[in-house]
Amino acid sequence: MIMIVGLGNPGKRYAQTRHNIGFLVVNSLLKKFSFLFEKSQFNTKYSKGLINNVKVIIVKPLSFMNKSGFPIQRISSYFKINLSNIIVIHDDIDLDFGRVLIAKNRGHGGHNGIKSIINSFGSKNFIRIKVGVGRPREQTNITNYVLDNFSKEENKKLKTIIEKSIYACTLIIKNGVEIAMNLCNTRKQNFQV
If you placed Cys at 6, which of 13, 26, 119, 152 could pair as Cys (CB 3.0 to 4.6 Å)? Predict the structure, then answer.
């Protein structure tokens, strides 16, 4: 079984913020693959189903981002899912807005949600789909920037970015992480969605 985790902060206040791109992607995954309902357990919401005939559990931690590692570790332990079979989808300010990159076995790069996961598992051997939200142009506090809603211009591109992220996710499930990285991590990112 593969576990797909979308990172975000719970509550309406954060629903459309840059930091919640992981939640937005997994919400779209749930719809696209007709996962019927979500259950709550271990301070997460989750749903099980099939993607490309592979058993998948889609998870949204209900804790705040910087405490998301513990609920993810608990639910993966309960379902006996190896860390190497976990895909985490999250925002990345060091990537241009809309760029999607796949990484595995990398450090947290200053992302508190990823730092929490690494600390909870004692390892960084999981797959990440990093979704670029860009850096602010002005001298803005980074925390305020990622916790702010998408701009009007960004909202126009959001559907395509979510589709690119879902495509990256399904490529990993179908072909494995190495092939998916070769196809997705190109400079031009002209892969089909």
Answer: 26
Which of 48, 107, 54, 49 is CA-nearest to residue 75? 48
Q: Does 19 participate in catalysis according to the annotation?
A: yes
Tell me which residue of 50, 62, 80 sits closest to 5, measured CA to CA.
Answer: 62
pLDDT band at 139 (very low <50, low <70, confident <90, very high): low
Q: How far apart are CA 75 and CA 61, in angstroms?
A: 10
Residue 66 lies inside a defined structural domain of this protein: yes
Q: Is residue 190 part of a domain?
A: no
Total number of domains constituting the chain: 1
**φ and ψ at 136, to 5 degrees?**
-65, 145
Residue 104 lies in a domain: yes
d(CA 176, CA 147) in angstroms, rounded, equals 32
**pLDDT at residue 125 greater than cutoff 50:** yes
Which of 19, 90, 108, 111 is flagged as catalytic?
Answer: 19
Amino acid found at 24 = L
Quick check: 192 pLDDT over 80?
no
| Residue 191 maps to a domain | no
- The pTM (predicted TM-score) of the whole model is 0.93
The closest alpha carbon to 105, from 77, 120, 83, belongs to: 83
